[in-house]
Amino acid sequence: MGIEEKVIENKDVAFSEKFLFGKERRNIEEAECAKERLEELGIRTEGLEKFHRRFLMEMPKHIEKVYEEYPEIVGYITSIKSANLPEGVLARTGPYLNKEGEYAGAEIQFSKSFFGKGNYEFKIVDLESDLNWRGERWLAGEGTRGVITHEMAHAMALKINAEDAGILIGERDDTRYEGLTKLYERNSRIIHLCYNALESTEISPRNVGREVSTYASGDFGEMFAECISRYETCKKPGRLSTEVHDQYVKLVEERNKRVAS
User: Fold this and answer.
1) Pairing of strands 44-46, 77-83
2) Over the chain, what HEC string results?
3) What is the value of pTM for the model shown?
4) pLDDT tens-place string over residues 8-45
């Protein structure tokens, strides 16, 4: 190997190191920017640097959009973190306690193995377009916004369940928190809401997959989240998604009236 070849090789190494460092630095900067935007919304974060910078750019704006449409849950999502979730699980949302043992609202965990890669958007598209033998799409919402809206819909359900359990954010009450987790697991209020939507549209529970998505046919909690996601992200959400949305809005309005009276 001649001197000229060594120089060229060293330049290539230096360029590669600079390129990799530049990508890492941009990702850290984007994570800091996302953290600031989420903290302004009252959301603490953990492990954002594990996500791809494109997801870090998308996530806050989609959350802000849902907050605009459903202001009743502003401040109810208080934690977002990256997590090692089971394969095939993109995200999950649920209640949690802070270090003091107080009820802290909803925490959303996003899969760092899924959203940490630059091709996550293509994978979501694959899930949307992959039809089963009945011609049902797997996911109801569209794109990254659909996944985020789905998880925020779970937070909407959680808030309703917490109101039924009589527990507020910042309250320490083990009995009420246990009651909340039981309500959230079986989503009693959401079950009633979804049943009403099915009756109003005269759609059989057996056809939820065809009307909304395969994922929605799993249980009523997922049906609710998928319907809200589809309503917010699709131009033609369909009868069932629209009815679930309208039933939810009606429920919130009725609760607000009771609180005000």
Assistant:
1) parallel
2) CCHHHHHHHHHHHHHHHHHHHHHHHHHHHHHHHHHHHHHHCCCEEECHHHCCHHHHHHHHHHHHHHHHHCHHHCCCEEEEEEECCCCCCCEEEEEEECCCCCEEEEEEEEEHHHHCCCCHHHHHHHHHHCECCCCCECCCCCHHHHHHHHHHHHHHHHHHHHHHHCCCCCCCCHHHHHHHHHHHHHCHHHHHHHHHHHHHHCCCHHHHHHHCCCHHHCCHHHHHHHHHHHHHHCCCCCHHHHHHHHHHHHHHHHHHHHHHC
3) 0.88
4) 345 554 444 444 556 677 778 899 999 999 999 999 99
Cα–Cα dist 12/240, whole Å: 57
Instruction: Read off the pLDDT of residues 74-87 as tens digits, 9 standing for 90 and up.
Output: 999 999 999 999 98
User: Which of 255, 247, 235 shows the shortest CA–CA distance to 200?
Assistant: 247
